[in-house]
Design goal:
The complex is a heterodimer of chains A (371) and B (431). Chain A has 371 residues and is of the alpha+beta class. Chain A has three domains: 112 residues, DNA Polymerase III, subunit A, domain 2 (DNA Polymerase III, Chain A, domain 2); 121 residues, Roll (DNA Polymerase III, Chain A, domain 2), CATH 3.10.150; 118 residues, DNA Polymerase III, Chain A, domain 2. In chain A, a hairpin with a 3-residue loop joins strand 3 and strand 4. In chain A, helix 3 crosses helix 4 and helix 5 packs antiparallel against helix 6. Chain A is elongated, with a radius of gyration of 25 Å. Chain B is of the alpha+beta class and 431 residues long. Chain B has a five-stranded mixed β-sheet. Classes of the chains: A alpha+beta (371), B alpha+beta (431). The interface between A and B is medium-sized, with 29 and 19 residues. Strand 27 of chain A pairs antiparallel with strand 13 of chain B.
């Protein structure tokens, strides 16, 4: 293998791809990236066996070939290089880099040890607007559970509901549900559960770009086609718990409050909350929301009153401040509505300004208040 | 039964503990004969006296009247358990700087298994010196340390150079050491046994070791065999990990962890058997967590192998749990790393730490509500009708065939008496 490529071009591809490399692994090959040189292109690939990424970029290839090199070391060398054409030579599992007057040599592992990458079946591909996809992911991913004892909750549920595409995530204590109307995913008939790791990579790669993303649903995996870059992920086995049952339908109390004001106050008050539970008490009286907390370990207390719109009977609730802040961060608009019932049942939170083709709602389960 | 690997055990005995703590706390008491008792104005006895008072002939267990007679200028002080517990916990954390295998034997005595720490701390003597120095620097107290290959011998050794002593009883000196030692000196041989043994003409360990073991067995049953072994300085008793620190702090105080361990009736290489014990321990830990309204997020597994080496690892999960199945699942993922089939298992221990009290994040899902209610109902039945009246299917077989969980066993009770109870108590809390 012999090629030359501009430093900045190679580095930006490497910086994307190292995000797939597992930080700890028992299989040494997984800490390597695979480089294939073919005609005027090189392909970089990395995988942690759950997710994989390949990206193709142009280069001046004078001799075809392939090699694996330790991803971190290789990236470090390229990052520290001056902006110049880098000459890469590889043979017999060794890579030689010529950077201006410098020579760097790296050992690799046999190419055939590198795991097989998924094949892309373009005939099954369906297209979706990148910004739409990112928006749905961002509004739900925060609620994904990291509790390994319940694997089904370790991903976002994607489903087609009639003419709508819907994403749901929950960790058993809070839930986020986002539906986009008339944005059906044609190839998606069954529910799938997509792990968050790949979605974080995906949203970062898409950024603010207004481009389409191809989706290919395979039996146990999902492939994202971004043109030069292909991402794939294993899907999580279901079934997903029947979340619809937990969405309350008869919450009879309604609190409307200014979003920024609430978020800032919760943030401030919760500084003195218990570091493990982050418990903040919401005491609702007519048009007054009193937020309070106490940390008995350090002996701190906080209490603040904020105006709100609340006409029902007085109600005391305990919430994990982080759950409130996570939800408020994702809800659009200036005002939020809390639909509440009792101190031990789920509260529904959403924006007062609903978009026509969207439906976004967050559920938060209270903490049991102990006096 | 004999451990294959030679062990090194330290017995640390604090010198005149309560009295020293009082003297440390109040400089005016230093150098003076003080006597700690239950109630200076009541009819109590001396629990500890300072060495200054001992010089006057004051002994533990004397009535106050006797003590005052022996040492008229002696200062009587009421017992202050909180103070002693505080210092004990401090001592425990010092011991744990040297080895994780610490058994708190009483408020002022602990066993440390320091086998295999040579590379870290040097020879046992060097380690003991460092330990004594640390204790002196940290608490201002002195202690006497005995080093030997068993708990029994280490305890005898610590008595040799009191106060502020250090004595290493090497294996080759054991026989000579025990030859003329009165049997009553041995931990576990109380006044009654001494009386019966004296009647057989046995006064020293040497005599006891030469007495035909069959006759001892005829006279005392199973204990006879133990007596014979004790007279030879043999004691396979492992250093049991400390029961959870909650036991020292008493209820209402902040608890660090809740745990249980069990020495199996016999070593096993069968993974399924180990898993059964793990589940039953998880259930006990979960029940104790629930009883005290705690939830924890770090699960630790301790496995001791037949050669007394041990494995200990912990895993922190995202949720706070008090459910046996979740504790079991987490501990099981740690157990997977161990090759039980070749290594064998002698002791299994599970504990949960990183605790929070009371505050419960409610769950969205109904099944979990139901599970919570099921567990509460189960606890209620078991509270009324006894442990394991209601249990997981997996445990049914085991509970029937082996009576490893004595019905009399209570986590609060740390059985240390010699005799049947000791032999039956396979279950010990861990910290």
């Amino acid at each position: 293998m012999k090629l030359t490529i501009l430093k900045s071009k190679l580095l930006s591809a490497l910086q994307d791809i190292v995000s797939v490399i597992p930080s700890k692994t028992t299989l040494p090959i997984l800490s390597h990236i695979l480089i294939e040189a073919d005609d005027s292109k090189i392909k970089l690939a990395a995988t942690d066996l759950d997710i994989s990424m390949t990206t193709t970029l142009e280069a001046k290839v004078t001799k075809k070939g392939e090699i694996t090199v330790p991803a971190k070391t290789f990236t470090d060398i390229i990052r520290e290089s001056p902006e110049t054409q880098i000459e890469i030579n590889a043979a017999d599992n060794r890579m030689e880099l010529k950077i201006n007057h410098g020579v760097y040599k790296l050992p690799g592992l046999p190419v055939d040890e590198f795991p097989k990458l998924p094949t892309v079946n373009l005939s099954k591909e369906i297209k979706i607007a990148g910004p739409d996809l990112c928006r749905m992911i961002k509004k739900t991913i925060y609620a994904v559970s990291t509790d390994e004892t319940r694997p089904a909750l370790n991903g976002i549920l994607w489903q087609t509901k009639g003419e709508n595409i819907q994403m749901v995530a929950t960790d058993g204590h809070r839930l986020a549900k986002f539906s986009q109307k008339n944005k059906k995913l044609k190839g998606l008939h069954e529910d799938v559960i997509v792990p968050p790791k790949i979605l974080n990579v995906l949203t970062r790669l898409i950024g603010d770009q207004e481009k389409e993303v191809g989706l290919i649903f395979e039996e146990n995996s999902l492939i994202f086609d971004l043109g030069d870059t292909i991402l794939s992920t294993r899907l999580i086995e279901g079934p997903y718990p029947s979340y619809e049952q937990v969405i309350p339908k008869d919450n009879d109390k309604k609190l409307i409050v200014e979003k920024e004001l609430l978020a800032n106050t919760v943030k401030r008050v919760s500084i003195l909350s218990n570091l493990l539970t982050h418990q903040v008490k919401f005491a609702l009286k007519k048009d007054i929301l009193e937020l309070s907390t106490a940390n008995f370990d350090m002996g701190g207390e906080a209490k603040e009153k904020i105006p709100c719109d609340y006409k029902n009977e007085d109600l005391d609730l305990g919430y994990n401040a982080l759950y409130i802040l996570d939800a408020l961060k994702q809800i659009d608009g200036d005002e939020v509505i809390f639909e509440l019932s009792t101190p031990v049942s789920a509260g529904m939170v959403y924006s007062t300004q609903k978009k026509e083709d969207e439906d976004y709602v967050c559920l938060i389960m209270p903490l049991r208040l102990v006096e | 039964m004999e451990p294959k690997k030679k062990r090194t055990i330290l017995h640390v005995d604090m010198d005149a503990y309560f009295a020293s703590v009082e003297q440390k706390a109040n400089p005016h008491l230093r150098g003076k004969p003080i006597m700690v008792c239950g109630d200076p104005n009541g009819r109590s006895v001396v629990t500890t006296s300072s060495y200054e008072a001992r010089a006057w002939g004051v002994k533990t267990g004397m009535t106050l009247w006797e003590a005052k007679k022996a040492c008229p200028q002696g200062i009587l002080l009421p017992c202050d358990p909180d103070k002693y517990v505080e210092v004990s916990l401090n001592l425990l954390s010092i011991y744990k700087e040297f080895t994780p295998a610490v058994e708190v034997f009483s408020i002022d005595e602990s066993f440390l298994d320091i086998t295999g720490t040579e590379r870290l701390f040097g020879t046992p003597l060097q380690l003991a010196e460092k330990l004594k120095k640390r204790i002196r620097e940290e608490t201002g107290l002195t202690c006497s340390v005995g080093i030997a290959s068993t708990k029994l011998l280490a305890k005898l050794a610590s008595d040799m150079r009191k106060p502020d002593g250090l004595f290493w009883l090497k294996d080759e000196k054991v026989a000579e050491f025990l030859e003329d030692l009165p049997i009553s000196e041995i931990c576990g041989i109380g006044p009654k046994l001494t009386f019966y043994l004296n009647k057989l003409g046995i006064r020293t360990c040497g005599e006891l070791s030469r007495y035909p073991v069959q006759l001892l067995e005829e006279r005392f049953g199973k204990i006879g065999i133990y007596l014979h072994r004790m007279a030879l300085g043999l004691d396979e008793g492992p250093v049991l990990l400390t029961e959870s620190e909650s036991e020292y702090k008493g209820d209402g105080e902040k608890v660090k962890s809740v745990g249980h361990s069990i020495t199996l009736p016999k070593d096993t290489r069968n993974r399924e058997v180990a898993k059964n014990y793990l589940l039953s321990l998880s259930e006990q830990v979960a029940r104790r967590l629930r009883r005290k309204h705690y939830k924890g997020k770090t699960v630790s597994l301790v496995i001791r192998f037949p050669d007394f080496s041990h494995f200990s690892q912990q895993k922190t999960i995202k949720e706070f749990i008090d459910d046996a199945r979740e504790i079991y699942q987490t501990a099981l993922s740690l157990l997977e790393q161990i090759n039980i089939e070749t290594l064998g298992v002698r002791l299994v221990g599970v504990s949960v730490s990183n605790l929070i009290k009371g505050v419960g994040q409610l769950s969205l899902f109904r099944e979990e509500w139901r599970e919570q209610m099921l567990l509460e109902a189960m606890d209620e039945v078991n509270d009324r009708y006894g442990e394991f009246t209601l249990t997981w299917g997996r445990l049914l077989d085991k509970v029937k065939t082996t009576n490893i969980l004595s019905p009399a066993w209570r986590p609060e009770k740390h059985v240390r008496k010699f005799g049947e109870e000791y032999l039956d108590s396979h279950c010990e809390p861990v910290g």
